[in-house]
Amino acid sequence: MKKLFLVAIVAAFATTSAFAQEQKPATEQKSMEQMKQDKAAWEKKFKEELKLTPEQTVKYDALNKEYSEKFDAVLKDASLDQSAQKEKKMGLKKEKEAKLLEILTPEQQAKYKEMVDKMKAEAQKHEAAKQEPPKQ
Description:
The protein is an all-alpha fold. The chain has a domain of 53 residues. It contains 4 helices and no strands. α2 packs antiparallel against α3.
């Protein structure tokens, strides 16, 4: 009887582990979809709040396309380890921001920096909330 009970517990753990592993890709996919939605929302907010001119919008969209392709190339580069990938992505991010600031007027640059600072503060607040132990 004890052996049967032990086998049942082991089987339950194995089933639970297998089920959790099967669910992971779906969770990752949802995360990618959420990231795309977040990016689209940020771009819309960016264009509206900074009141980009049609000419600026064209330049901004071209810049996003160019750097999206560069980021994808870094992610697909199998010769890079994770830290090298991160370093290259940070370099690309700085390049992109420098080019972005060239497109914007000084007033828009100030507004953009406010938006970024606000977004960073919200991200830090969210991260701190995730690390707090649950209240009982």
